[in-house]
Structures are given as structure tokens and as C-alpha cells.
Specification:
This protein is of the alpha+beta class. The longest helix is centred in the middle third of the chain and has 37 residues.
Length: 379
């Protein structure tokens, strides 16, 4: 396996890092405290081609590979994990889903603007009683002529209040369970569609996470993705790709923890010498770096499989499981290295811990990743 980056990939990484440090870093602390969505930054990400990176140029995207996408998400998340997940959802879930399963008409109407960053997308699968058990959909869509009438509630929807387009999973035949779920493209402004609640969160606070309400929303049949009953398969397949984005986000946070710890340990003195000279600190840094590199290799491996058209579900689960664990561990170690300073907001490492934790929960909890991996091993 050759993980050497191409010139294009190196340029993508350099561009993403420059954007993150110059455009995101100055406002990241304030946005975190005020829970402010980075509207202008997201528009600029679209201008850079980072909101539809793997979408073919024909449909408004950048036509890049998965490795380029992962490098960009990691660099953005290293500075601002909130922007990282906004970018990940639009790329991995929304654009990917429409590009892979949508009709040419749906791609013309929606994908082009999503990939170009002119519009923003969200992915609505989770419900009050359908989190890890995603097949337990209470949201229903009843066929009525050339439309479906959509009723229900969705929880934990990233980009939900700012999105122009939401991919919504709903039961079209509850008697069939998972095989009775379908996917619909719902536009912002559709009568009966509203934002019900914005969550106040521990981390990734400048990304919006909301509940959505659908009351007698009439959705054209032309906005159904695929056939009736294919929605659960669509959601699970799309989430496989989404886990790559979350692994990249976790990597970015972990790398930020290591960078901050190295810098602080060189500057902070104890007993008349930098704490970087102490073996206890050096071992922590060595372990952090080794684990991050291992997580990166798992993530690059799944990128290679995906781009080669090979099955990658098990490997995506492995990458997401391990990278998210490494992210949380790295944040805890960074706080420990910083001592009391790590526990206060004057230093960024406390935010890294708050941001890291969600990577073990969304787009499939760590427990769900283990189920996916074990199922693949035992089939």
C-alpha cells in the first residue's frame, strides 16, 4: 500500500490548513462560546471547492478522491471541529447520497448547488426512539397521488436549522420494518416543515444541532431517492462513507491536542527545566503520536478501498472506532500535560476534549461500530 500523498493531495492539505489558521482560528473561541454558526466560513469553503469534494465536476463538485477529502477535513477540524462536521455532513452524507443514488433530475436540481457550496445539506435519520436502532422509524410518509404526506420528528440533525435541503428517512410501510423505509429530499420552506429545538451542547458548539418537525408536509414523488423501501439501505450505506469523515474529524482534534502539548511542554518549566525533558511527559507525547499515526493509517486504508470501488464498511467502522477513541484519549492527555491550565478556557485543550467526545457517539456510537466489525468477521 502506498500512502504517499500526490501533489494534488499535498496542495489540498496546504490550502485547508491555511484557510483554517487564517479564517477559522481567529473566531473559533468566540463562536464556541456564543454557539454561532460560521456562515461566512462555510461559504468560503464552498468557494474553495471543499463542500462537494468527491462529487464529479459535471455536477458542480471538485471531482477529488477520498484521501483529499480526509486531508481537508482533518486540517479544518484541527482548528475548528465544528466546521469540520459541517463540511463532513454536506460531503459524506448529503452530496454522496444524492450523487450515488439520486436521479439526474435530482442531481441537477440539488446536487450542483450543494457541491458548489451555494446550498447546505442535512441528513435526518435519528429520532427520539430511533438512534442506534435506526430501523425504528416513527416518521411516516403516506403516498397521496403525486406526493407523499410526511409527519414526524427528527433529532440530533447537524446543519438542521441552516440547511437548504434535508435528506429525511421515513416509513412508507411500517409493516415491513427496515424494508419499509424510504428517503426523501425535503426543501427548506416546505409548508409544515419547521425547526423544533436547537440543542445546547457540550462541544462542537458553533455547528447547529436541532430537532426537526414535519406536519403534513407534502413532498413530491420526484423527491424520493430510489424506490420505496430502499431508504434504510441508503442510510446505512451512506453512513459507511460518513464514518470516514468523522474519523478524519477525530484525527484533526487529536493532532491539535498533540501540537498543543508539544508546544506547551517546551515552554512550561518545572524544577528549572522545560517539562518536555521529563520522561513522563515524553512518554505521553510518544504514545499520543503513535496512536494518532495508527488511526491515520486506518483512515487512509479505508480511503484507498473506497476509491478502488471495494467494500469498505468494516474498515470504515474500524477507522471511526479507533480514531474517535484516540481523539478522546489525546484530549485527556493534553489536559493532563497542561495541568491546571488545561482545565480552563484560557487554553484550547479543554475545548478539544469537549469536541472530541461526540466523535464516539454520532454517525454510529462506538458500540455500534463494534457490532458492524464483529458482524463482518462472523458472517
Amino acid at each position: 500500500m502506498n500512502f504517499a500523498y500526490t501533489e494534488t493531495q499535498q496542495l489540498i492539505r496546504k490550502t485547508a490548513r491555511k484557510f483554517a489558521e487564517e479564517k477559522l482560528a481567529p473566531s473559533s473561541i468566540e463562536r464556541d462560546e456564543k454557539q454561532e454558526f460560521p456562515h461566512e466560513a462555510v461559504k468560503e469553503l464552498g468557494t474553495l471547492g471543499f463542500m462537494g469534494m468527491m462529487v464529479p465536476e459535471k455536477w458542480g463538485g471538485s471531482g477529488l478522491d477520498t484521501t483529499s477529502y480526509v486531508l481537508a477535513v482533518e486540517e479544518i477540524s484541527r482548528v475548528d471541529a465544528s466546521c469540520g462536521v459541517i463540511m463532513s455532513v454536506n460531503n459524506s452524507l448529503v452530496c454522496y447520497g444524492i450523487n450515488e443514488y439520486g436521479t439526474d433530475d435530482q442531481k441537477k436540481r440539488y446536487l450542483c448547488d450543494l457541491a458548489a457550496g451555494k446550498k447546505l445539506g442535512a441528513f435526518a435519520l435519528s429520532e427520539p426512539e430511533a438512534g442506534s436502532d435506526a430501523s425504528n422509524q416513527r416518521t411516516v410518509a403516506v403516498r397521496d397521488g403525486d406526493c407523499y404526506v410526511l409527519n414526524g420528528t427528527k433529532n440530533w440533525t447537524t446543519n438542521g436549522s441552516t440547511a437548504d435541503i434535508v435528506l429525511v428517512m421515513a416509513a412508507t410501510d411500517k409493516s415491513k420494518g427496515a424494508k419499509g423505509i424510504s428517503t426523501f429530499i425535503v426543501e427548506k420552506g416546505t409548508p409544515g416543515f419547521s425547526v423544533a429545538k436547537k440543542e445546547t451542547k457540550l462541544g462542537i458548539r458553533s455547528s447547529d444541532t436541532v430537532s426537526l418537525s414535519f406536519v403534513d408536509c407534502r413532498i413530491p414523488v420526484a423527491n424520493r431517492i430510489g424506490e420505496e423501501g430502499e431508504g434504510f439501505k441508503f442510510a446505512m450505506t451512506t453512513l459507511d462513507g460518513g464514518r470516514i469523515g468523522i474519523a478524519a474529524q477525530a484525527l484533526g482534534i487529536a493532532q491539535a491536542c498533540l501540537d498543543a502539548s508539544i508546544s506547551y511542554s517546551k515552554e512550561r518549566k518545572a524544577f528549572d527545566q522545560p517539562i518536555a525533558t521529563f520522561q513522563a511527559i515524553r512518554f505521553k507525547l510518544a504514545d499520543m503520536s503513535t496512536n494518532i499515526e495508527a488511526a491515520r493509517m486506518l483512515t487512509l486504508n479505508v480511503c484507498m478501498l473506497k476509491d478502488a470501488g471495494q467494500p469498505f464498511g468494516q474498515e470504515a467502522a474500524m477507522a471511526k472506532l479507533f480514531a474517535s477513541k484516540v481523539s478522546v484519549q489525546s484530549a485527556l492527555e493534553a489536559i493532563q500535560i497542561h495541568g491546571g491550565y488545561g482545565y480552563v478556557r484560557e487554553y484550547l485543550v479543554e475545548r478539544y476534549l469537549r469536541d472530541a467526545k461526540i466523535t464516539e457517539i454520532y454517525e454510529g456510537t462506538s458500540e455500534i461500530q463494534r457490532i458492524v466489525i464483529a458482524r463482518s468477521l462472523l458472517k
